[in-house]
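Figure 2 data, in text form.
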Amino acid sequence: MSRPFRLQPILELAEKEAEKSAARLGTLNLQKQQVESKLNLLLQYREDYLARFRSGMQDNPAGDGWRNFHDFMDKLDAAITQQRTIVGHAQDMMLKGQAEFRDRQRRVKAFDTLAGRHRESESRRDNRAEQRALDELAATVTARSGRGR
């Protein structure tokens, strides 16, 4: 009779933690994509606004438009800088999430290796016990057949 793997509850816990870590990594990856998308949108908006301003300046080079343009571009550049900081933070969080996920996966693999070794050991133990029983049965049959003559 095989003995149960005593570390099975820890293996199951490690598997659950790895699943949670994978889910967190997925969420972090999605968040990173969203903040990068917002940054790209801001950058594209900046380019479009700059192109429209240049086009408008050729038609009507007024002084107020230039000042308003600079004020707006300063605000837009500040928003872009802030969004780049947010993207950097999201990238850092995703890298930490990846490291955590790899760590959880290694932990599961280690416990799974131990479980595999336990199964192999128990299988060998069961096979030896079965072989002993067969040997004893053969010896009993041989002893009986020797007495019967």
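Caption note: The chain has one domain: 8-147.
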